Structure formats: structure tokens, C-alpha cells
Amino acid sequence: MKKVLFVCLGNICRSPAAEAIMKSKLRQLGKEREFVVDSAGTYGGHAGALPDERMREQARCRGYVVDSRSRVFYPSADFPEFDLIVGMDNQNVADLKRLAIHAEERGKIVRMMDFFPEKTPYQEIPDPYYEGPEGFELVLDLLEKAVDGLLEYLQRNE
Ligand code: 4NP
Question: Does residue 11 have its Cβ closer than 6 Å to ligand 1?
């Protein structure tokens, strides 16, 4: 059993999309029972809200149902619970590292684009919140491949 938590700022755009894409790919591989996949935000201001409608719609066009409710990242519960805590951008990773008390907690924090399986100028999943539709498409393009890389990593380290 592997437990993976995706983390962005608001938990209404990037990390719920990563969660839905990961769950969809695991389902296709027949491996959904081997994983727990969740998402959270470092900022709790959208807690309880459904994901951003722009993200839901564009993900729906690709066959993903993005419908998890936003929640804030809880250091005392989430650090012990999850094996891998995946920040979407450098700020998310820095915020998570600041919240980590023990080295073991810090060691669980990784950056999503570090799993991207190709050469790319992108080191982060860019925040699409103030962008147009192309910002959301870019997030989905990057996430689909980064999740593939993450799945390969998890299989290699089983
Ligand atoms: P997310 O996007 O971190 O990908 O969920 C954002 C959502 C909300 C805000 C910023 C980014 N906000 O400023 O409220």
C-alpha cells in the first residue's frame, strides 16, 4: 500500500486534478486498491469547495472527473499518514518543508515536475488561477506526463 498526497495552494485547481489523473491511471492499470491518493492545499481559504469549474470542465474533456472537496494540509495528520507528499510548485514545496518538524517528514516532500519523464523547460506546475483556458490546458498536459513518471517511480521503488 502506497499513500500519496498532492499539494498545491488552494486545492481547487492543480492538486485535485493531479489526484483525479492519478486515480484514473491507477484504475486503468487495475491498481487502485494498492494506493491511497488524496490532495490538500497549504492555504485553507477554499476548504469545503468543489474544484474550480474551469479545471473541472477542461479535465472532463479529457475523461477525468475532478470532484474532491478542498481541504487544508494538516501537518500533524498528513505527515505521518502519507508516504509521499507531492508539491506542485516551488512555493508549495518550501511551505511544506517549513511545516515539517522531523527529517523523516521533510524526506517525504517531493516536487511534481521532478517526475516528468522528458526534457522540459518547466520545473513547476504553474498556478493557473489567474490564467486563461491555456493555463489550465498546460497544467493538464504537464500533470498527465508527470503522473506517468510518478507511477514509474513508485513501481521501481515497490
Ligand atoms: P491551486 O490554484 O493552488 O492550483 O488550487 C489556486 C487556487 C486559489 C488561489 C490561488 C491558486 N487563490 O489565490 O485563491
Answer: yes
pLDDT tens profile 57-114 = 999 999 999 999 999 999 999 999 999 999 999 999 999 999 999 999 999 999 999 9
> In this structure, are residues 51 and 26 in contact, taking their beta carbons and an 8 Å threshold?
no
Collapsing DSSP states into helix, strand and coil, what is residue 36?
Answer: strand
Taking the CA of residue 11 as reference, the ligand 1 atom at the shortest distance is 5
Angle (nearest 5°) at CA 8 between 23 and 38: 30
Residue type, 125: I
Rounded distance between C-alpha atoms, residue 52 and residue 21, angstroms? 16
What is the number of other CB atoms lying within 10 angstroms of the CB of residue 129? 16
Q: Which pTM was predicted?
A: 0.98
Ligand 1 near 13 CB (within 6 A): yes
* pLDDT confidence band for 158 (50 / 70 / 90): confident
State in Å: Cα 128 to ligand 1 middle.
Answer: 8
Give yes or no for a contact between 5 and 99, defined as CB atoms under 8 angstroms apart.
no
